[in-house]
């Protein structure tokens, strides 16, 4: 469990929150309660994808991420604009570690602007800083 001081830093840094296993778990629980957990799941899938070395594995993961989060009517479709979706699809012709960067940045910005302020106001967060 993080110290209250550590948890307090998350108010200003979504990055620190996502890097902390406890923070990530709390944030995901909060997002689940708001029906927007796919954003954190997509972000995590992209982080995992970027660490993939094998081109074969990378292609498999890229396809899975695309089908799960990007394609229209995907089971956990994330909210990205058409331009970002088009760029991402073009990047997937030849998957590389940066294929999802633009989409991941958009979702990070969305969580930072939208979800993080609500998380900081929530019971989930207030329990952590006690």
Automatic annotation (TrEMBL):
Q: Which Gene3D superfamilies does this one have?
A: 1.10.196.10, Regulator of G-protein Signalling 4, domain 2
Q: Write out the GO biological process terms.
A: negative regulation of signal transduction
Record's keyword annotation contains Calcium: no
Q: Which residues form the signal peptide?
A: none
- Is Magnesium among this UniProt entry's keywords? no
Domain RGS spans what residues?
A: 13-129
Keywords of the record: Signal transduction inhibitor
List, alphabetically, the SMART domains matched: RGS
User: What name does UniProt use for this protein?
Assistant: RGS5 protein
